[in-house]
Design brief:
With about 170 residues, this protein is mainly α. It has 6 helices and no strands. The chain is elongated, with a radius of gyration of 40 Å.
């Protein structure tokens, strides 16, 4: 069969079943004149159909539908009642990822803020902690953020601080 033959696959099945409309049958017959592989495929389809028609139809045993429905109900109820299903770590893992990320971020921000507010040794704090300090003037903060490296500590830079009761705008 060629790529062109793929368009006739459904027609071959319908022709084997003798349900192909006259227009489709005419197109298929024209194709079959030139295509030996499709002729062979039609013979194979008709052989399979005749074999399937010859087989007796086996019906379901009595009570089959009741047994299937009872098994489905039992499985569904068993799943709904099992408390062990609520302990499935795979369900909880992905549901708690956003909560864990938010908690970690909160702890990092609070720890950083407390270190700055408590007056801890500011020389050892990372440069980003200057963002949380009210004592650093705006010009020093801007200069620090533009020129500092992420891994630097505040001790590397001399910061201009504001006096209590004044804003950083008054500083030179």
């Amino acid at each position: 069969m060629t790529d062109h033959c793929a368009a006739f696959t459904a027609s071959l099945v319908r022709a084997a079943e003798d349900v192909l409309p006259a227009e489709g049958q005419a197109r298929l017959d024209a194709h079959l004149l030139d295509c030996p592989s499709c002729r062979e495929a039609l013979v194979d389809q008709r052989a399979v159909r005749s074999r399937l028609v010859a087989e007796p139809v086996a019906g379901a045993s009595l009570g089959f539908d009741r047994r299937v429905m009872a098994a489905i109900r039992a499985e569904t109820e068993g799943r709904a009642r099992s408390w062990l299903d609520s302990l499935d770590f795979r369900r909880w893992t992905w549901r708690l990822v956003p909560v864990a990320a938010a908690l970690a971020l909160t702890v990092a921000v609070v720890t950083q803020t407390e270190a700055v507010v408590s007056g801890a040794d500011t020389d050892a704090l990372p440069v980003s902690s200057a963002l949380f300090s009210e004592d650093v003037s705006e010009s020093s903060l801007l200069s620090l953020m533009l020129s500092a490296n992420v891994d630097d500590t505040l001790g590397t830079y001399r910061l201009e601080t504001t006096r209590p009761g004044t804003s950083g705008k008054d500083q030179p």
